[in-house]
Design a protein that fits this description.
Low-confidence stretches: none
Number of helices: 3
Strand content: 35-45%
Radius of gyration: 20 Å
Largest sheet: 4 strands, antiparallel
Mean pLDDT: 97
Number of strands: 25
Strand order of the largest sheet: 1-2-3-4
Structural class: mainly beta
């Protein structure tokens, strides 16, 4: 996964330049100058010698980055390494961070690894962490300032110190990634004295097994208006019988959502990657009543890989779409990539579905 920031936004970036933070396989994180896309130039290796990497987050306004890393000695293959990348040429390490029980020397069962952080930056002062993608998920809502300036030694006490709330999910619910939806005006409560504006957190779990051989991962929304006491308000999934998806081949269930906060879609439409059920567009303006407003399932091609279940003589395989990741840009285009090598599709909302978005905010 990569993140790109403009040097015009970074506190110590070069004006007119563009920088790309990327993972190098499972072993390192790198910084590249991509001002000329035809001639990318690696500036440095931020950290190397890792067990694993995954989807990191980079604040372009401050330069703080939350790298998903597997640091040898930690009791998980994925935790957070926090760096100051405000000057992309000079990375500064701040601290390692994870769940209590993951740090070196801890005892007992180790919690599942980090899959993705999301930060609201200095203004929002919150970082949201999602741990254990497909089962026994954990969400942490963290005070960003305390995280960055608190004691760095990874003791249980120091790992808990910046945490405002922790949500421990049941065995059938994972935490792959989260998307905060903050300061949402609630039309349903517009005539009430209280509760007219609320904060929510979208959670996506990752379905791992093919052909429904495990619990299906859902989209879940939590009311986090009272941050220390989150409460679930709704769930959503593609109905299986709408496409006989359990027998269509490959995985069926959630994997990820868009993460761009573009005002075209923010607090209005969320896009989710649903493996063999393609990309789904959800109207979330009323988080208590999620409404699907569009979908796109790509056609398989001669490049689409097959997906198998079973072993030996019991193994059977099918060719199936596996929409894996989805993102949007500031013009409103939707980008979907396939896990089974079908490639990338660039989409746009059409018809009545566009009314849920606000294209007056689109960049030209």
């Amino acid at each position: 996964m990569v993140r790109v920031c403009s040097g015009n936004d970074l506190p110590h970036g070069g004006k007119g330049k563009f920088y790309m933070l990327r993972s190098y396989g499972n072993s390192a994180h790198e910084m590249w100058d991509v001002t000329d896309p035809a001639k990318p130039n690696r500036l440095n290796v931020i950290v190397k010698g890792l067990e694993d990497t995954h989807k990191s987050w980079w604040e372009c306004d401050s330069g703080i980055a939350y790298l998903v890393s597997g640091v040898y000695g930690w009791r998980t293959t994925r935790m957070a390494q926090i760096y100051d990348l405000s000057d992309p040429a000079k990375p500064v390490f701040i601290r390692n961070f994870g769940l209590p029980g993951q740090q070196p020397g801890a005892k007992g069962p180790a919690p599942g690894g980090l899959h993705g952080p999301v930060s609201t930056g200095p203004k929002g002062n919150r970082v949201y962490f999602a741990y254990d993608n497909s089962r026994d998920g954990v969400i942490e809502i963290v005070d960003r300032q305390k995280l960055l300036t608190g004691p760095a030694e990874p003791t249980d006490e120091n790992l808990r110190a910046p945490v405002i709330a922790r949500i421990d999910l049941p065995a059938d619910a994972g935490a792959h990634n989260v998307l905060p939806m903050l300061r949402m005006p609630m039309s349903e409560f517009a005539r009430q004295r209280d509760g007219k504006v609320k904060d929510f957190l979208v959670l996506i779990g990752e379905t791992v097994a093919n052909e429904c051989q495990e619990n299906r991962q859902l989209l879940r929304i939590f009311d986090i208006t009272s941050e220390s006491r989150p409460v679930g308000v709704s769930t959503w999934t593609v109905p299986e019988d709408s496409g006989n998806f359990c027998t269509a081949g490959g995985r069926f269930g959630m994997h990820s959502s868009n993460e761009n906060f573009t005002p075209i879609y923010y607090n209005r439409v969320v896009f989710v990657a649903h493996f063999n059920a393609g990309v789904r567009a959800l109207d979330v303006r009323d988080p208590y009543r999620i409404k699907e407003i569009g979908y796109y399932i790509p056609a398989v091609t001669d490049k689409t890989d097959q997906r198998c279940t079973g072993q030996g003589a019991d193994q059977h395989c099918k060719v199936a779409i596996q929409t894996n990741n989805v993102e949007v840009d500031n013009r409103g285009y939707i980008y979907a990539v396939d896990r089974a090598n079908t490639g990338m599709h660039i989409l746009e909302l059409s018809g009545p579905a566009r009314e849920a978005a606000d294209f007056s905010k689109a960049e030209r």
